[in-house]
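Researcher: Here's a chain I'd like modeled. Treat it as a single chain, no partners, no ligands.
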Amino acid sequence: MNVVLIQSSVRDGRLGPSIVSRVKPFLERKKWKLHFIDPMDFNLPLLFQRYYEMKSPSDEFQLLHSLLVKADGFILVTAEYNHSIPPALKNFLDHFLKEYAFKACGIVSYSDGAYGGVRAAEHLRLVCTNLKMPPITEQPAISFAGKRQTPDQEKAFKKVMKKFLDQFEWYMEAFRARRKKGLPG
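Model: Modeled as a single isolated chain. Structure tokens:
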């Protein structure tokens, strides 16, 4: 299985890299082919044209397109900004469309507050659904992300991640099998 892990935030002092470093080991145990996308590493303009509208996409866009097309599923690690997703993530997602179609999506949210980014995750679920990238129901949320986690919190996180990845894998396999038979209109 090919999995693309996408981080959301590009601002100074972001917590995203620390959250990704907590999530990645769980993915690596699955022996999937893992690709990591950090919007900070790409110089994407504000959306003017989607990939399929570009007459001659840059090498950067061609690389991203290639990674997304080959993916069987996407894991989006999102921060919460003002009850929504970071603009860098929305801008990244909007540049592509059919690359996401009928592939599983898992959302991991986080915030410095008590709610763990769940409001952003709920908004992201709507965006992903419209991109034909159905989000699974398990949805890890990391509260007080900038603080040290207690052993009990770590134990709970491991349990949630296991359920999350088991469900994600099931959906990836199901969608992959159905995509081989063709896509709905």
